[in-house]
């Protein structure tokens, strides 16, 4: 410790979500990810919610019912600004998905579901909530650059070491703004400075990968997780999301 004043939560989030700089392992990861991320980039087009509902048929009756509810939501939000879209989309996934670990939901330790896969099950874990919100917002026209999926260490009472690995969706009104946090653990949307229980590790979207705070790294290789992200993106696009 050098005795200098520690930055507050908002400053930590800004640092944590800046484009990577000197970290060699992340710099190399970026080079390996360029081709993968290029597959993810999509253009904003008119929302085709009928296609989404048709795609939901392969996920069974629960998927169709949830897709029709999503269609109604998205139709009502068409033409609205970002601020009017965040809460309804956040509430929709928080209410439609019951929390369930991947091993119980999918029979594997780690699976990143597309929005319709999650809605077909009616359940998901933290990644599935964040992914569903991300694609619904981008399909409505929110720029990818304003959204990042953020791996965090969430302080949870009774958890081993006092925290658990978790994912949230962050919304940036402007590139340098303090982000708003959309989370399944807390139903209300809060600025990052009001979520001191969350410590960012790394974040990503359709356009890049960002470094976390200091020397903290996610357990395992983030490229493994981002390969799961690419798979979720491909399935979401096949189902009509942008």
Could you name the key traits of this structure?
two-stranded parallel ribbon; single chain; C8orf32 fold; disordered N terminus; globular; 242 residues; 45% helix
Question: Can you walk me through this structure?
Answer:
- The protein has 242 residues and is of the alpha+beta class.
- The chain has a single domain (9-238), classed as C8orf32 fold (Roll), CATH 3.10.620.30.
- The chain is built from 9 helices and 8 strands.
- The protein has helices spanning 9-16, 24-40, 49-56, 60-77, 82-96, 102-105, 115-121, 126-140, 222-238; strands at residues 98-99, 123-124, 147-155, 163-171, 180-182, 190-191, 198-205, 208-210.
- The protein has a 6-stranded antiparallel β-sheet with strand order 6-5-4-3-7-8, with helices on both faces. The chain has a two-stranded parallel ribbon with strand order 1-2.
- A hairpin with a 2-residue loop joins strand 7 (198-205) and strand 8 (208-210).
- Residues 1-6, 19-31, 34-45 and 213-220 have low confidence and may be disordered.
Question: How do the helices and strands line up, and which of them pair or pack?
Answer:
Layout: H1 9-16, H2 24-40, H3 49-56, H4 60-77, H5 82-96, E1 98-99, H6 102-105, H7 115-121, E2 123-124, H8 126-140, E3 147-155, E4 163-171, E5 180-182, E6 190-191, E7 198-205, E8 208-210, H9 222-238
Helix pairs in contact: 2-9, 3-4, 4-5, 4-7, 5-8
CATH topology: C8orf32 fold
Q: What gyration radius follows from the Cα positions, in whole Å?
A: 17 Å
Percent of residues in helices comes to 40-55%
CATH architectural type? Roll
Structure annotation, total helices: 9
Proportion of residues in extended strands = 15-25%
**Structural class label:** alpha+beta
Main sheet specs = 6 strands, antiparallel
Mean pLDDT: 82
First-to-last CA distance? 46 Å
Instruction: Name the CATH class.
Output: Alpha Beta
Count of separate structural domains: 1
Q: Trace the largest sheet across and list its strands.
A: 6-5-4-3-7-8
What sort of overall outline do the alpha carbons produce when their principal axes are compared? globular
Order of helices and strands: HHHHHEHHEHEEEEEEH
Number of strands: 8
Low-confidence stretches: 1-6, 19-31, 34-45, 213-220
């Amino acid at each position: 410790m050098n005795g200098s004043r520690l930055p507050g939560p908002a400053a930590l989030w800004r640092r944590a979500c800046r484009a990577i700089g000197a970290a060699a392992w992340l710099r190399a990861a970026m080079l390996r990810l360029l081709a993968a991320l290029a597959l993810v980039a999509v253009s904003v087009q008119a929302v085709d919610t009928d296609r989404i509902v048709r795609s939901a048929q392969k996920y069974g009756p629960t998927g169709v019912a949830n897709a029709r509810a999503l269609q109604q939501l998205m139709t009502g939000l068409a033409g609205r600004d970002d601020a009017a879209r965040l809460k309804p989309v956040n509430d929709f996934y928080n209410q439609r998905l019951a929390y369930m670990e991947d091993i119980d939901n999918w029979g594997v330790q780690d699976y990143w579901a597309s929005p319709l896969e999650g809605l077909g099950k009616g359940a998901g874990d933290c990644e599935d909530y964040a992914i569903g919100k991300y694609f619904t917002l981008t399909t409505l026209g929110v720029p990818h650059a304003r959204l990042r999926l953020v791996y965090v260490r969430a302080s949870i009472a009774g958890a081993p070491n006092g925290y658990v690995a978790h994912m949230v969706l962050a919304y940036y009104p402007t590139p340098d703004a303090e982000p708003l946090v959309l989370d399944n653990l807390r139903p209300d949307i809060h600025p990052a400075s009001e979520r001191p229980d969350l410590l960012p590790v790394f974040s990503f979207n359709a356009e890049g990968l960002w470094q976390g705070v200091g020397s903290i790294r996610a357990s395992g290789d983030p490229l493994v997780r981002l390969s799961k992200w690419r798979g979720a993106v491909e399935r979401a696009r096949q189902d009509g999301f942008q």
